[in-house]
Amino acid sequence: MSFGMQDASADGESEVMNEINMTPLVDVMLVLLIIFIITVPVMKHAVNVELPTATSQPQNTKPETIQLSVDAQGGYFLNQNPVAPDTLPAVLQAEAAKEPQPELHIRGDKAVRYEFVAQAMGAAQVAGLRKIGFITEPKP
């Protein structure tokens, strides 16, 4: 126990000892120290391997960005060039076949119906474009 009884006076009254027994704490710390001493050599690599060296250049080819704009009337513009709604899936599929695959940035007018933007997103997904983002203007 951490508290014990202590004889304080000669008349037989005993008081509670209010000191913490440090022995269990020291025992636990010694056990932890032994565990760490045993496990540290195990954590090191047991096999020394001499790895070969090589030089290479990182690939800095960034994929191009495709701008798909949707105006207020629902018209599509791919990189500022008008595109008919029925030819949009074929154009996006041709872009998706490029390597590395380009990113598609959709710029929708704030007055356009959501239906036209959703159709553009669906056509991009069917075409196989994996990176699609939305472009917005920050508030002044």
Portion of residues in helices? 25-40%
Number of helices: 3
How many structural domains can be distinguished in the coordinates? Answer: 2
Helix-strand category = alpha/beta
CATH architecture level-2 label of the largest domain: 2-Layer Sandwich
Main sheet: strands, sense, barrel: 5 strands, mixed
List keywords for this structure.
five-stranded mixed sheet; 19% strand; 140 residues; Nucleotidyltransferase, domain 5; alpha/beta; 2 domains
What does this structure look like?
The protein is an alpha/beta fold and 140 residues long. It folds into 2 domains: 5-43, no CATH class; 65-134, Nucleotidyltransferase, domain 5 (2-Layer Sandwich), CATH 3.30.420.270. Helix content is 31%, strand content 19%. The protein has helices at residues 23-43, 88-96, 114-127, and strands at 5-7, 14-16, 65-70, 76-78, 81-83, 103-108, 132-134. Strand 6, helix 3 and strand 7 (132-134) form a beta-alpha-beta unit. The two termini are 69 Å apart.
Describe, in short, the structure shown.
The protein is an alpha/beta fold and 140 residues long.
Which helices and strands appear, and what pairs or packs with what?
Elements: E1 5-7, E2 14-16, H1 23-43, E3 65-70, E4 76-78, E5 81-83, H2 88-96, E6 103-108, H3 114-127, E7 132-134
Parallel strand pairs: 3-6, 6-7
Antiparallel strand pairs: 1-2, 3-4, 4-5
Helix pairs in contact: 2-3
